[in-house]
């Protein structure tokens, strides 16, 4: 079975909370557009502070990228730490690294505080090197994080084999800050927690209009309107109306996953025995993990369309067996894919298009922990607890990505071509 929805996560997550469509007129202190990690985290923190907050979601909580990803809760960004400082600058770079380095801890804390059932495994992740180039990249990444106080550890080949259960890698970077989660269950849990604290979440309520008023904003949906003093736009790559420019500055990178049925106990015990999630250093990467029931989940860059879906499934089957020969003959049962928004410099974007209107986007494949943290920070901005110049990102104008559509098609086609021949790109 292949899905362009949440796939396995939709089957194993707890039921979504009841979020009926907005009907008629409503008022709020803050209107949040989008019920992914960022919007739901913002709503939770605002509601905890006693703020009247309304969330408008085009489908249901977690229906976008938040419910379709791998479920790796990572620290930092894909970029090397020193590259973050170089690109973000001496004022914002260290602040951003500190913020996102500690971001997984905020996820684990919210999970505990709000009793969210989401298969949270705060046991670390393994970034794995299959070749010499990968080892060099991990060695540099480890040194940079360690110089900043990050408690990461570079594992040698025997240690890596013991931690992954695979002999396909020569080294791995273990990050104890990180871990795995059932991503849709986490999103639904955030929604339920926000509602418990008083937030109102309306599903099936796509925003069709956003107009500035004398004392705030009017947000329109097909069946209603919300008057709010402030608005948080948290739709990321799924933005259409009312601010499409926020999506246009990102190139879309499709990413798919396939999952087996639950493995027999003897096989399950041999794969990632410590419960970490993993991925490799190849540019067209492979991610791999187990869920709580012992399903093996493998993913990579690509879209599961009518033409390329079979290519990616065949590749995933071969790659699964290459990593874990004991899985030969095990079928991939469920497939799904989502979208990653990539920016020109691989940094997120913070915008304030007008007074009382905030936007955050472009997590570049690191949505769970950064979305959670930036949701809190946007809530603090709306509450007046911090100012814009205290954020870990500068406020910038939006700028459309050059040749956005062509680059997106090239990424999709290139990944399919590589998976067709069983090859990988150069190491990161």
Give an account of the 3D structure.
This protein is α/β, with parallel strands linked by helices. It has two domains: 2-70 and 184-250 and 344-397, FAD/NAD(P)-binding domain (3-Layer(bba) Sandwich), CATH 3.50.50; 125-176 and 251-342 and 408-421, D-Amino Acid Oxidase, Chain A, domain 2 (2-Layer Sandwich), CATH 3.30.9. The chain is 34% helix and 25% strand. The chain is built from twelve helices and 19 strands. It has helices at residues 8-12, 37-48, 81-101, 103-113, 132-147, 157-164, 183-196, 245-248, 265-268, 309-323, 368-383, 404-421, and strands at 2-3, 24-33, 53-56, 72-73, 125-129, 153-155, 171-175, 179-180, 200-202, 209-213, 216-221, 224-233, 251-262, 277-280, 286-290, 295-301, 332-342, 349-354, 357-361. The strands form three sheets. A nine-stranded mixed β-sheet has the order 1-17-13-16-15-14-5-7-6. Strands 2, 3, 9, 10, 11, 12, 18 and 19 form an eight-stranded mixed β-sheet that branches. Helix 2 (37-48) packs parallel to helix 7 (183-196). The longest helix has 21 residues, at 81-101. The radius of gyration is 21 Å and the shape is globular. Residues 423-428 have low confidence and may be disordered.
